[in-house]
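Hi Q.,

Before the meeting this afternoon, I wanted you to have the zinc ion prediction in hand. No need to reply - just skim if you have a minute. The sequence and ligand are here:
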Amino acid sequence: MSTDAVPPPAKPPGGHIRLTSHSAGSDAPALRWGAPTAAERGPLVGTTTKRAHRNVIGTHSGAYGVYRALAVAAGKLSREHRADLTNTAPTDIIGPHPQWADPETIVSLDPWGAMVADVFAREIADGVDIRPTIAVTKAQVILPEVHDAIGKARLIPDGRVLLGNGAAQVTKAAIEPVWYLPGVARRFGCSETDLRRALFEETGGMYPELVTRSDLDVFLPPIGGQTIYVFGDPRALADPGVELTARVHDECNGSDVFGSDICTCRPYLTHAIEECIQGAQRGGVGLVAYFRKEGRALGEVTKFLVYNARKRQAGGDTADQYFARTECVAGVQDMRFQELMPDVLHWLGIRKIHRFVSMSNMKYDAITGSGIEIGERVSIPDDLIPADAQVEIDAKMAAGYYTPGQVPGADELKKPKGRGLHG
Ligand SMILES: [Zn+2]
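Predicted structure with the ligand bound:
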């Protein structure tokens, strides 16, 4: 690496620049990824205050680490602030599961991340700034689609999973990305050196330690994390004898939050929640894992550019051009790469998904390829597909997505089914 590839870091207010490219002091705790106990694995230390304690590349909070920097720059946050973890312990204990002790099974999150205040209490008391990368809490979720399903008697409140007011009781966990670089490289079939170099160069040289500190194996990447919602008893997730209904969902802000009708994301998400509630009421357990991978991990700007390109192309918005238009703008059809997705399922101890609420062959292949059995595949009911989303669903079925029905033929895929730009 030539040194001119590294931009000079800006001088932060009040003192010398904290460089990261020198070896840590002997105060940094050792890390052994995939070790069977927390003590043998060791704590992740991503603190920016005591450099000598750091044993990872990057900082905590994923993409929000940048906002933390803004808060420090603006003088709103003390750089020395340490989280007070009093009363923040998980509401439900997840694991430890045997999957945690295999360095290849989980490579993109810290299985011990929810319990650091407990398992590393001594180190924290000794002054090491160790932060949770996972938080587990309880909530009630109220969705208009669930109210609708109650109105149509598809769902019946039982006072346990689904309350009389239409609120579903859930346990949820927020999970920050923690990448064990040798394991991530193996998942993608590249060398660790190539992975580190691409991560360094394609972020504009954001983390020089990726290429200067080969002794640091763990990277806290500045990307979105994931959230899981569990309907029923979370401990049952690890019991293959208990029926598990599950969906893994990739973020789509336009549909999930704002109800845009060009895709099936929110209808599929709320359909999965309905299936999860029904499953939990049957004595099973339901799981929705929600990944922050907006617009096939291409981001919303790319996604909206593609929408325009689809709707303005000669012949109108057709399924046969659906993937081509994305590739024209982004260079690839999809950047979600499901290779790391099954990690959260292994964190939860899952061995079998009885009802998998997804049509995606990529998700199915990633999960089964990681050793988790999938029973039935549940596709979205036709009457939940918005009219403008027919282009997407036809294109995906033609590309190999699971459907119990007819796969659309070449003539069908050429028909303009999408609305024009101006309605
Ligand atoms: Zn969508």
